[in-house]
Structure formats: C-alpha cells, structure tokens
Amino acid sequence: MSDPSLVIEKKKSTSKKIKPPKKYKVVVFNDNVTTVEFVIAMLIAVFDRDQETAIQITQHVHESGSGVAGTYAYEIAEQKCYEGVELSRNNGFPLVLKIVEE
Fold first, then answer.
1. How confident is the model over 70-84, as pLDDT tens digits?
2. pTM score, two decimals?
3. CATH label, 33-101, candidates 3.40.50.2300, 3.90.380.10, 3.30.1390.10, 3.75.10.10
C-alpha cells in the first residue's frame, strides 16, 4: 500500500563525458651494439608484433635512429617498456626504450 504523502522526485541526469585515456608511444632507439635479430625477437615477444611488422619497425629504427614499437595507455606502455629493457639487459644489450606522449 502506498503512502500518499510520500513524494519521490526523479533525479536529474548528470552525465559527464568520459574522455578516453591519453595514449603513449613506446619508442625504440638505435644503437651500435644491439643486433637486428634481437630487436626483431624483442618486438615479437614483448610487443606482440608479427615477423613482417617487427622487421619493418627494426628497419625504420636502423635507418632513422628511432621507431615506435607500439602505442598504449600509460600503464601498459610503462610495462612494455620495462619488459623490453629487462629482456635487453638479460641478453647483454644496451637497447633503449622510452615512453613518449602521443
């Protein structure tokens, strides 16, 4: 049974527009020590690139000095960068990866 003195007001909609998270690039830098084969393997293992794409990225890094391994939300970019550097150091290479805002 309803109480006639009870009044329920409909709440006004307060919708906020949610912005997608910023994207960050993980950039691989060329050096004179890290082998092409290692960079390709690292791109496949850490960044889930296929063989052909990994070769193209590696060639771009070699020719221009740097190249984008992938673009991600910050936390994912940070993790991928860490994994790539750790894999590099564990294999005796000084490969440099950095996170850059898109």
1. 999 999 999 999 999
2. 0.81
3. 3.30.1390.10
